Amino acid sequence: MERKYRNPEKMRFAEAIYIVEIVKGICLTAGVFLKNLGRWIIGKRGAVTACYPEEDRPDRSPYIRGKHYLVQNPDGSPRCVACYMCATACPARCIYIDADEISQNPDIQKGPKRFDIDLSLCIMCGYCVEACPVDAIRMSDNIKTVGYTRQELYFDMQHLLTWNPHVEPFFTDKLRRVVQEEPVTNAH
To answer: For position 130, what pLDDT does the model report?
Structure first.
């Protein structure tokens, strides 16, 4: 079966240089600008722009995925058993783990000698948290992870263990209540 194509008529000069469409776009942009400017002059909030980082969005979800941290056992050691599931599940390949025998305890066979996360590569997907069988890695709602160099965004195990999201000023009260009320359990 042969397809038949319709050839459009030849465009006029005004249509060929898209003057009408350009004018429509300028009018739309100017209308939005003037509407927001009018709201700003009378004291109402015009555009939906937050002055980041001084101003935080009030409608931000308490379940937002932000900075990573490692959960500690009561003795201060990492809960991680170096099973590599978080590193395997990570699509950005930003988690680096080296396993070692770290304890004399016969119940604990191995643990991480090195556990590093490169946040300059991380896409904050949360797959590492979901893949962890012992709930050793979590993500807080602190999305303010910035640095001037890549080395500032490379977190080693000591940083991930010592950083406490419950005393971090960016940990929202709403999420703190949720964490305290609902203990995290793994369905295995």
So the answer is: 94
Count of H helices and E strands in the chain?
6, 5
Query: Do 39 and 46 meet the contact criterion of CB atoms below 8 Å apart?
Result: yes
- Tens-place pLDDT, residues 15-36: 778 888 899 999 999 999 998 8
- Residues facing residue 100 across a β-bridge: 111
Please give the span between the terminal C-alpha atoms of the chain, in angstroms, as a whole number.
57
* Nearest CA-CA partner of 72 in 133, 157, 131: 157
Beta strands in 71-179 (DSSP E): 95-100, 111-118, 137-139, 154-155
Closest CA relative to residue 80, chosen from 11, 157, 14: 157
Q: Which residues pair with 96 in a beta bridge?
A: 116
User: Residue 85 — φ and ψ, nearest 5°?
Assistant: -70, -35
Whether the link from the prior residue into 62 is cis, omega within 30° of 0, is: no
